[in-house]
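Running log. JK asked me to keep both predictions on one page so they can be read side by side. First protein, sequence followed by its tokens:
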Amino acid sequence: MIIIIALVCAIVAVCAVFAYLVYQNKAKPTDAESTIPVSEQTTSMSNEALEDLLKQQMMFVNGIEYYYQNSSQQLAHDAIGASVFNNSEVSVKSFVVAFCAFDEKGNPIKIVQPDEQGEGGYIRTINYEYTKAQGEKAALEPNETCKDILMYVKTEPQIVTVKACVKSYISTDDISWDNPYYNAFVLQYSSKTLK
């Protein structure tokens, strides 16, 4: 009987040591990148790789349009448009979308809104409050797309390419989410020529 108890204790001890070693191995960084902040990990990343990462986030831009004033009587000015997909499991009442723009050669353009004084900025954000914009609907539900995020812009110089990213959101339960790759987006595109 004593031999059986000793054997069981030995097996339990070996299992405990093994479990500890597995835990220690998983807790260690697997490579040098895992100790580097996300924004620094992506500085050498291609535009396509960053776009793929952004599309895996809780909320992401899944479509971009440029609307010319003369294409619709409803538009007072040219506008940058974005569609945003709610990839989370929460209902979202407001979110912030960041835009940047480029000319035909891929050079960055400072975005200036029509009635704005000053030179604008390479990254411009718009805070989209869902209830104010949609009226009858209180929130963007999980797996839904919001298609009418617009930022009016001046037409000179002519914008040819637009990049956009969801910066953050607030759920109907007042839970905030900040995109961990927003700073990488800024580093990749703000005042830089497209690669």
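And the second, directly underneath as requested:
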Amino acid sequence: MKKIKIYAKASFHSAEIREKIRCGCDGLEYNLQEDFLRKGSCFEACYLQEIFTMHNVEAVHVPFYGDGLVMNMEHVFQKKDVSPVRHVFRLAQYCAQIWKHRVLVVIHSSLSYYDYMQFELVRGRLTEVLGQFFAAYPMVDLAVENVIPMEYKQNSGESPRLCNGTFTDLPQIVCSLREQFGERVGTVLDLCHAAMTEKYMKALLAAAEFLPQKNLPEHLDYSMEHYFKMHQGICKLIHFNDFTGNGYMQNHGTPFENEEKAVAWMRLYEKYGYDCPLTLEIREEDYQNCVNYRKTKQMLERI
């Protein structure tokens, strides 16, 4: 297997970026925070210039709204004001010009393929605005990330929110967008999200007596191997991480407790001919001392 590029997720904090550089990485994926929603229109002046020039930038992740609510693709592109995501594209173009290579914009989507096809106005708005962005920011590509089947905020007093587009939907939507925009659109395969989906969907399928329990049809196969198969040829980036327990809050985006799991996933990477980079999107107690990132990177070097 040829050398795989390893990216590090980092927020707009110089100390955190320096720590990721010390840990070793081939590039950065910016983890934009809620403050970018306020400062995005003037990011060149609102943030230290060294943030953009300290180390190679490969991707920027669309920020979350307040309270950690996800800015999903199907939501932001159908609003009258699309400036929040436009600023992200502009940031990506800015970094691309500094580092003289293409930069990815990463965004989540929980849209089902059925709704994508049926919601003609949403689909039209998405392709119209995306076309405008691609024309205005020629060095920027889009990568759409798979989500988990349920969003739940502990101690919020609210019921869990179930998501639709958790598996076959995303590759189908991306393939549809590629018919218009070509390879400028691809997927991000988040392994933590995929593994959580596999866990929760297995439990749901086992409880659903009306569904087949053996020889599942392809659209009901939520195995990790099927995830790799579905994203084959269209995946631009993998978020390489794990989860523990229920996968939420501190249990999300963890390092691998079981190295055999990481070995199995990398075998799938090789089996299906992947050559995309890995972003180590790893939770830390202290992001200025990235113990878990180092541990995960060393494990990858071993396997």
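Observation for JK regarding the second prediction: The chain is about 45% helix and 15% strand.
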